[in-house]
Design brief:
By secondary structure, the protein is α+β, with helices and mostly antiparallel strands. Helices cover 17% and strands 34% of the residues. It has a six-stranded antiparallel sheet with strand order 3-9-8-7-6-10. The protein is globular and about 55 Å long.
Length: 285
């Protein structure tokens, strides 16, 4: 059983949701390999299993919000849940509105022309059609790479490591991805699964984050950690080639959180842009 804890910062309501995921045994039609693994692991919200509710929200985003007719790339973010802030001593002294609401989690997402489907805008596309289009785009991976296993029938999205690729059966053997500095980085005994290629994504265009995630981490979520672990952008780019501009000025303070960027992007006066090299990607409301 794997637990993922997300912690907000002081500018938001203190919130500690837990998420857990049980790695289910593979169906009888797939191969199962038992592996003994020897290193400790650490999880964080960029390299982890999503909670069931977060996975459901991401799949709903793909099904209902992902644009299939964009003429240029755009980023967006919106609150996944809201919680009323408690009235504390600080609000009594400084007059903060006790009825003010703040997001517990936010969906941060990319829309891209390469997500477009044939005759886009003329019909309602199913979740499977949309995932198929994304699967074709995020299909560049090799053994040792970190990938997303997406199983919409179980509302599950989890980060895995590619063990092997079987082109004859169009399947991929994957195991749990860890942070221990080597393969898996996990201590214990786990099952390696073989799953259809259609369920494996080299990257994914949306992620659920706490509002306190700072710009310095958001850059890696967009760009990827390295060439074996790409991010939201369909191909790996060096994180130092990604930055945020507000009203055409670079945001120098990389500790500013996603929640602040969402507020700026939602205002009528601030223009927020994600720069990837020379490309300017609008952050749309």
């Amino acid at each position: 059983l794997i637990f993922l804890e997300l912690v907000d910062d002081s500018i938001f309501h203190r919130h500690r949701p837990h998420s857990s995921m049980i790695l289910r045994p593979p169906p009888s039609t797939t191969r199962s390999i038992s592996s003994t693994l020897t290193r400790n692991f650490q999880w964080h919200h960029h390299n982890s299993s999503m909670s069931h509710s977060s996975s459901s929200a991401l799949l709903e985003h793909i099904a209902k919000r992902m644009k299939t007719n964009n003429k240029f790339p755009t980023f967006s973010a919106y609150a996944l849940g809201v919680t009323a802030k408690p009235r504390g001593l600080f609000s009594w002294f400084f007059g903060r509105d006790p009825g003010e609401w703040s997001p517990d989690l936010a969906i941060f997402a990319l829309d891209h022309p390469d997500f477009n489907l044939i005759d886009a805008g003329t019909q309602s596309y199913s979740l499977s059609q949309r995932l198929s289009a994304l699967n074709a785009l995020y299909s560049n991976y090799a053994p040792g790479d970190n990938v997303w296993l997406v199983e919409p029938e179980d509302e599950r999205i989890v980060k895995m490591e590619v063990i092997d690729i079987y082109k004859d059966t169009q399947t991929v053997a994957v195991g749990l991805a860890g942070q221990g500095g080597g393969r898996f980085g996990h201590s214990g005994r786990i099952s390696v699964r073989e799953v259809p290629m259609e369920n494996i994504f080299g990257g994914f265009p949306a992620i659920a984050l706490v509002p306190s995630v700072p710009i310095r981490m958001l850059k890696r979520i967009i760009a990827g950690k390295d060439k074996k672990d790409i991010g939201i952008w369909p191909e790996y780019v060096a994180p130092d080639r990604v930055w945020i501009e507000v009203n055409r000025r670079k945001v120098e303070d990389e500790e500013i959180g996603l929640g602040t960027l969402v507020r700026w992007a939602s205002s009528e006066t601030d223009d927020v842009v994600v720069r990837i090299g020379r490309e300017r990607i609008p952050w749309v409301k």
